[in-house]
Amino acid sequence: MRKTVATFADGDVASELLRDFRIDSSVLCRSVMAAPWGFGVAGRDLGSFHMVLAGTGWLEVDGQSEPIRVDTGALVVLPTGNPHWVKDSPSSSAPSLTSILAHHDVIDGELRFGGDDGPLTEIVCGVFMLEGARSTP
User: Fold this and answer.
1) Exposed/middle/buried for 82, CB within 10 Å: 0-12, 13-18, 19+?
2) What is the pLDDT of residues 53-81, one digit of tens each?
């Protein structure tokens, strides 16, 4: 599927850079988590994205010194697949997403885990890959 999101003037530098980029993406699951919660994503060759549909959390990225607060409506894009952790609080533990999936079923695309009665956060997680670029700008 191809969708035009924005157009630029002829000869515009942004047009030249973006013209051949294609994004292939997959939504892995929608996670609904009650505090306390957290998950870690190992480094990979694909980019990662997380869209916060409801609630709040904190993002920690390997190599970054400070966690970043993410609120409802935030879109996190990690284009190089860095290892990262998403948590309800900077002090919460964040087991690997792989181990969480080994102990919790994804039912109709939804993964539920975390505490029993804490505030809920809902996040859509996925991966993506840039395709078709002529060169790396």
Assistant:
1) middle
2) 999 999 999 988 899 999 999 999 888 88
Q: Where do the domains of the chain lie, and which CATH numbers do they carry?
A: 23-131 (2.60.120.10)
Q: How far apart are the C-alpha atoms of 26 and 14, rounded to whole Å?
A: 26
CA separation for the pair 9, 103 (Å, rounded): 51
Non-local CB neighbours of 15 within 8 Å, separated by 6+ positions = 7, 8, 9
Beta bridge partners of 56: 71
Closest listed residue to residue 77, CA positions, set 49, 105, 53, 103: 49
Closest by Cα among 54, 48, 50 to 33 = 54
Dist. CA 94–CA 87, nearest whole Å: 7
* Confidence (pTM): 0.75
Residue 45: predicted pLDDT: 82
Q: Quick one: tokens of 136?
A: 């790396």
> Is 13:94 a contact under the CB 8 Å cutoff?
no
